[in-house]
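pasting for the record
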Amino acid sequence: GYGDAEFAKLLESIRVKGDLPAVFGAVIINGEIYATAAVGTRKIGTDNWVTVDDKFNIGSCGKAFSATLVGILVEEGLLEWHTTLKDVFPDIIMLPEYEPITLVQLLSHRAGLTKNFIADLAEDRPATPEGGRRQYVEQIVKTNLNNPPGQVMHYSNAGYVIAGAMIEKITARTFEALMSAKRYKPLKLTDAGWVAPAELEPDTQPWGHVVKSWSYKPVRKDHNLWLDPAGGNCMAIRDWAKFILQNMYVDPTNRQTIISPKTKKRLHTPPDTVPWKYDDQYFKIWEKLIGWPLTSSNYALGWYNLKTKEGETVLHHGGATKSFIADVYLSPINGNGVLLATNARTSLVPLYEGVKRINANYSLKLNLP
C-alpha cells in the first residue's frame, strides 16, 4: 500500500500543494531507512492509485549510480580515474582537444563539453543502446569543445554518455548489464531497471506526465535508452534509498557496504575548485524560484557538493526525464537524507519545498541552503 501512514500524510499535502499526480518519498535517519511512502495516482484522471512498490524514473539522480559503477571498476583494476578518451578509443579519429579528457573530468562536468542537452543521434536510429553511445562518441569528438578540459564546470549529460561508452569498450559488456551485475544485484535492488515503468506495465505502474497547455498529459514512453548513463534508472523508492544508504558514513554493523571508504571519499569530493560556467536560462530561473544559486555548490562525481555554514557537507542532486522528476539531499556524516520523486515533468520547486518540510518535520538537520 501507501507505506508509513504519518509520512504518507505529509507527502499527500506536498502532492496537493505542488499539484502533482503522485509523490514517492523516503526519509533516512541515522543511517537507516526510517519511512517510505507513495501517494496519488498512476495516471491523471484515474483512481489507479500508486503503491510504495511502484517504480519511477530518477533522471540525473542516477548519475551517482553511474559514477559509483566507475568506482567499482577502478577498484577491480579494470581502469583508472585518469584513463583518457584516447586510451580507450585509439581507433576513433577525434579532435586533439578530446584526447586527454579523463573519466574524472567526464563525471565531474569538467571535460569542456559543449552543452547539457544532447542533439538526437542521426536519422538512422541505433539498433542497441550501446550502439547509440558508440555512435554518439564518434560524432561528438569531431565538434569543438566549449572549453579546454579541466578549466570550468559545465553540467553535461554528454559527459556521462561518453563515460558509459568508455566502460563498455573496456569491459566488453553493456552499461546496463554492468550496472545490474555490480550495483543492483549486490544491493538486492530487485525492481531496478531502465525502461519507463508504464511502457512495460501500463495498468500496474505509474505513467509519466508532460505539461501541455497548462494541464498534464500522461505518456507511457520516456527517454532513449542510449542516454542511460546520464540517468535512465527506473526503480521503487526503497531501492533508491538502499543505494543512498551506501553513501552514508554512519554504517550500522550489519549493513553490506559495496563502496570502499576510499572510493566513497573520491565520489563525494570535488576534484578542484574551478568555477561554474552557465549559459542557460534554467539556472537563472532556478535561482529566482528557490532563492539560492546552484553555483554555490561544487560538483563531485555524480553529486553536487554543498558546504553548510558549519562546514559540513550536504550532497544533493535533482533529476528530470521527459516525464518524471526526482530530488535527493543527504548528510553523509549525520546519516540523514530525503528522497522525493513525482511522475510529472514539472518544476523541481515543489519537490525542493517538500524536502524542506520533511527536513523540518523530522528534525533532520540537513542544513539546506
